[in-house]
């Protein structure tokens, strides 16, 4: 009877080699940039009580109603694998008393889980980098957060992706806009998609977000938030946009951008590849790479005090697709032990240690047929090959051997 190997779970990925290097490059660049902007690191659990997400995000959102991996643990408690970071961060903020650090600039990254239809750029386990500023009501916080996102994309070498920016107004503006949208869409209810008919009562803003063909004809003439903004909300948005201009962040007004979750107020944004650009090609229809906004109501939903906050998250896989494959870093030197003598092996090992102690990436080949060892080293493409045999040593490679190698191994001079 043949043994069958179990397959990976649908919608998960095993990432290796040049693609894994791209993934690591995204994370390393994020780490560098978040330090530049002085965001502090946090690590949260991968699972939380289900209510953390249900209460933060709202029961009517796609994420909560359709996409969560929830299960009862052996003690009968309903737990959920995190589908996003913000709710868990808000929970941690409250249960650890992080209020004392407010305004708190936080950064994290890691895996997330959503039960979605897998396709290119959309997985059931995916990864995000995430940045939040908690306990800051002022529009400068939005600018800081967006400047960091823009800087990160530039450091990643992604230049054909633009910030699409909207305001959803304060609670009052949003309510007035919402009422107008309900009235407008109710008049054409029968012609809307089933999803949007359902959204009409629960979450009408999200109709604007619809990709369904049946909804498209009604979207351009839908009421605009600008007609409902309070003076304060308008002023808030003006400070955000002038701050972005001062920081050199290019942006585009996107009046229909609402984002999927209930908790957003004021600023909402997405970074989207420019039409016809290489990044747009690379991502296909899964085009948003980074999204977020201000979520002034979320922490209250979790039973905390009113706490203004703003944040974003970006898919690491999607960013890695835009970065493209990255070469695996080359070795500065490869040591070849040319025979099976104790003396050569010992000297090779000492040299390998010295190279690494001098911060030179190196590895050693000392197994397999002695005749083939040098060929193996050449294949690995190191700048230099250092050989040891029972009675001597040698170095070969590029015309100019890195002086750092001679510093690590002076006897080679
Ligand atoms: P989408 O409209 O693509 O479903 P979303 O609004 O659900 O995105 P967010 O919850 O804002 O996405 O997550 C922020 C980012 O995380 C997205 O812009 C995307 O880059 C990434 N992302 C979201 N869901 C997935 C997924 N299933 N697989 C891979 N990346 C994802
Ligand atoms: Mg989604």
UniProtKB/TrEMBL annotation:
UniProt keyword annotations, A-Z: Aminoacyl-tRNA synthetase, ATP-binding, Cytoplasm, Ligase, Nucleotide-binding, Protein biosynthesis
EC primary class: ligase
A GO MF label: ATP binding
Record: residues binding L-histidine: 84-86, 114, 128, 132, 259, 263-264
Limits of the Aminoacyl-transfer RNA synthetases class-II family profile domain: 1-361
InterPro entries with a match to the protein in the record: aa-tRNA-synth_II, aa-tRNA-synth_II/BPL/LPL, His-tRNA-ligase, HisRS-like_core, HisRS/HisZ
GO biological-process terms attached to the record: histidyl-tRNA aminoacylation
Transmembrane segments: none
Annotated compartments: Cytoplasm
Catalytic reactions on record: tRNA(His) + L-histidine + ATP = L-histidyl-tRNA(His) + AMP + diphosphate + H(+)
Pfam families tied to this protein: tRNA-synt_His (PF13393)
EC number(s) per entry: 6.1.1.21
GO cellular component annotations of the record: cytoplasm
Subunit details: Homodimer.
NCBIfam families linked: hisS
Family: Belongs to the class-II aminoacyl-tRNA synthetase family.
The protein, known as: Histidine--tRNA ligase
The species this protein was found in: Pontixanthobacter luteolus
Lineage, opening ranks: Bacteria, Pseudomonadati, Pseudomonadota, Alphaproteobacteria, Sphingomonadales
Gene: hisS
């Amino acid at each position: 009877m043949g043994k069958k190997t179990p397959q990976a779970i649908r919608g998960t990925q095993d990432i290796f080699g040049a693609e894994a290097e791209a993934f690591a490059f995204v994370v390393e660049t994020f780490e560098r940039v978040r330090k530049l902007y002085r965001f502090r690191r946090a690590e949260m659990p991968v699972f939380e009580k289900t209510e953390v997400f249900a209460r933060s995000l709202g029961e009517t959102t796609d994420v909560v109603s359709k996409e969560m991996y929830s299960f009862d643990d052996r003690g009968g408690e309903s737990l959920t694998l995190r589908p996003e970071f913000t709710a868990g961060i808000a929970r941690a903020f409250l249960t650890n008393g992080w209020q004392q650090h407010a305004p708190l600039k936080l950064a994290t990254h890691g895996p997330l889980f959503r039960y979605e239809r897998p396709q290119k750029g959309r997985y059931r386990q995916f990864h995000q980098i995430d940045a939040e500023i908690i306990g800051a009501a002022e529009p400068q916080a939005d600018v800081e957060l967006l400047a960091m996102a823009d800087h990160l994309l530039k450091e990643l070498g992604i230049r054909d992706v633009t910030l699409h920016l909207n305001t959803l107004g304060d609670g009052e503006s949003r309510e007035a806009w919402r009422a107008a949208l309900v009235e407008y869409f109710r008049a054409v209810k029968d012609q809307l998609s089933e999803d949007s008919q359902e959204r009409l009562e629960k979450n009408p803003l999200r109709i604007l977000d619809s990709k369904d063909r049946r909804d498209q004809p009604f979207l351009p003439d839908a009421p605009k938030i600008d007609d409902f903004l309070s003076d304060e909300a308008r002023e808030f948005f003006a400070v955000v946009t002038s701050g972005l201009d001062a920081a050199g962040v290019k942006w585009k007004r996107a009046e229909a951008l609402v984002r999927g979750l209930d908790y957003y107020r004021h600023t909402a944004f997405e970074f989207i590849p420019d039409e016809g650009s290489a990044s747009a090609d690379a991502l296909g229809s899964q085009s948003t790479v980074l999204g977020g906004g201000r979520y002034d109501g979320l922490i209250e939903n979790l039973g905390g005090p009113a706490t203004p906050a703003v944040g974003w998250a970006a898919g690491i896989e999607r960013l890695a697709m835009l970065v493209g494959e990255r070469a695996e870093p080359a070795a500065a030197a490869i040591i070849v032990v040319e025979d099976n003598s104790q003396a050569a092996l010992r000297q090779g090992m000492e040299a390998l240690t010295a190279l690494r102690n001098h911060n030179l990436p190196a590895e050693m080949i000392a197994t397999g047929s002695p005749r083939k060892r040098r060929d193996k080293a050449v294949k690995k493409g190191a700048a230099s090959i250092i050989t040891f045999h029972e009675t001597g040593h040698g170095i070969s490679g590029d015309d100019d051997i890195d002086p750092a190698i001679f510093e690590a191994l002076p006897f080679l001079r």
